[in-house]
Amino acid sequence: MIDASTRDALAGVVGAPFVSTDADVLAARSVDHTGRYSGRAGALVRPADSAEVAAVLRICRDAGAHVTVQGGRTSLVAGTVPEHDDVLLSTERLTTIGEVDTAERRVRVGAGVTAAALADAARAAGLVFGVDLAARDSATVGGMASTNAGGLRTVRYGNMGEQVLGLDLALPDGALLRRHSRVRRDNTGYDLTALFVGAEGTLGVITELDIRLHPTPRHRVTAIAGFARLADVVAAGRVLRDVETIAALELVDARGTAVAERLLGVAAPTTARWMLLIELAGDDDQTGRLAELLDALDLDGEPAVGVDPAGQQRLWRVRESVNEILGAYGPPLKFDVSLPLSQVEDFQSAAGELLAAHAPEAIPVLFGHIGEGNLHLNVLRCAPAAERECYAQMMSLIAEHGGNVSSEHGVGSRKREYLSMAREPADIDAMRAVKAALDPTGYLNAAVLFG
């Protein structure tokens, strides 16, 4: 627990109602989104603005207290789980949404704004926020920037880093860094914004962001197409990801839709082993273009097509229902990987053999953003003992297939021991040097990335 003087100092900055040392509150905040990983914390602090965040960091640094930053706590790699009786610094009160600049297509928001709230604000102004993900109602833009999140629209708009035009950030020494520019091209000195995006809160606490918005396409058309072989889906992904009007390209595993139909009543529109959700969006009607593309693919059965919002929503429900059933048998074992498309089928086969050997009762479900080779392998009904057998071997399997052990969810604390599988020693040394320069005592997000 933090000492009384530190608690009083924090309360003096943020107000006593926004500092908690209640054991039940801290226990609930010390478990990750998957439910598999937990830690311990000494206090919860909820600052209201950038200045308060900076002051909280100064107090904790001077008191020798570790700090773990928490946004929507949707991390899937224990990125918000404290390990050192930490002070939990929550961004949940940083929820300001500025006026949308429709001419420049940008908006300034607080780090605690959820993806859904930002998307609603953009939509009200006739624009689109480029990152969408299943945890949209909980995930915060600060956390999404900290992990450089991707999601369902990455094939069109890119990852979160491509949406961030500027930011405010509290450095570990309590200084405030404001990196904003009203111009679209600014090559004056180091690209500090890019440094902090994807740093997983190890170099500072993002408090505000300038977010790029996009024009709203006038026409959308959505389809779910079935394929007999994963290799056929990969071949389709290679073609479709380069189509100018592609808006989404999502792999769906029939093993997942089978569970979704049984538990949620959401039926897939095809009985094929593999499915691909395809969406085109543009200023012109895309229906004819989609039909041409589908005709050129090696499909298993007739595709289902949604040309109006209701039909499109029904098809998207198939994809998103897979996320909803992942916890049906307890916390799933999650692997967020990035693979060369040429290796996807071989990896899927090898991963299946590995799981059959160590967790024969498990249900592997593979889905994700096939255009980028960014896939999510979720293992349902996997006991903790099987996890211990499988995790390290799966990481090695990913590396053997030329993949990256973390794609869009970050390293967190769960994957830190596998960092060397994705980065050369010189890379890791350079990252450690940056961390040491900005946070010499290593008190900020100490469990994350390096541990």
TrEMBL record:
Top-level taxonomic group: Bacteria
Record Pfam families: FAD-oxidase_C, FAD_binding_4
Tagged with keyword Flavoprotein: yes
Domain FAD-binding PCMH-type: 37-216
Cofactor: FAD
A biological process term (GO) from this entry: respiratory electron transport chain
Family annotation (PROSITE patterns): FAD_PCMH
Keyword match Cytoplasm: no
Entry keyword set: FAD, Flavoprotein, Oxidoreductase
GO MF annotation: an example: FAD binding
Family membership: Belongs to the FAD-binding oxidoreductase/transferase type 4 family.
Name of the protein in question: FAD-binding oxidoreductase
Organism encoding this protein: Mycolicibacterium brumae
